[in-house]
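Appendix B. One record, verbatim.
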Amino acid sequence: MVSIEELIEVVKSKQPGALLEKYQPALSKCPMCNTDRKMVKGKPVLPKQLCKDECIKKTLKDMLYRDDRLAVQLLVPIALKRGLGNGMTLKFDWDGYRNEGLYFWDAQNKEIVPPFTEVDDYGSVPPRFVVGDGYFNPTDWLDEVDHNSIVFPSRTLIKEIKAFIDLHPNDHKMIVEINGTEYLVINTKKLKGDELDSIILEVNGNSLSIYKGRPEWRDSSIEKLIDKEREASGQEFAIGYEKMTGQSARPGTGPANLIKKFAGINSPRGYKNNRHGGSRKKSRAAAKKRGTRRFLSNRKGTRR
């Protein structure tokens, strides 16, 4: 839970002009409660002397209700200060209908993400937080999100579900294991083929029901980030190799290549694709000829 007091402190440090603008600084009285303001050099003093605390809270709540972007800006420093883990939620501590005031923390990109409203108008878990083995658990947000339990499966989980349905088209139930826990997956709408590429899952305890989604809903930013991290780790390995050996990690620049170049020896054509050397076309012809010879010798043997 995030208190209004925490948010006011962030406004003071990050956006001191935000409340002033809403309070119409040219006025000597608060437009909300008509209280005389303490003025310094013709301007109202921020924050507590501006007017009553309740007016500040009411105004900030109204600003947050009307503008998700402001909430996103104010919640980032709070999430960082609390050291929240990826996928954890922040919610305002005042009453909000359904999922009002609920936000998700993307720790990998340092972003606050509002609920996804394409599946359910009241909001659901954003598509970037996918569930699957090695990712999030399907039940991670059951106590956080109101009105629905929709989650997005990872690409690996979709492939596993598709593979099972392709092999067992008449079976509409299967068991999958996600992070050590077994879940019953039910193909409620009997989807198949390409219809499974953009599915969403409805979580009911350890049961997952499949429903058809839309390709544009999927936001695989986390999966893409993992791919980038793998690519970066490969680059780090190459840099480490070059530092330790003093040699280039780029293919074709190793010690053997340098010796061949110094001695004037060139690798035969097609070397990368054929260990015998020569062009691929000639290699195929030679292989075909060898096979024909073996076939003829076998036939001669049978005649004897």
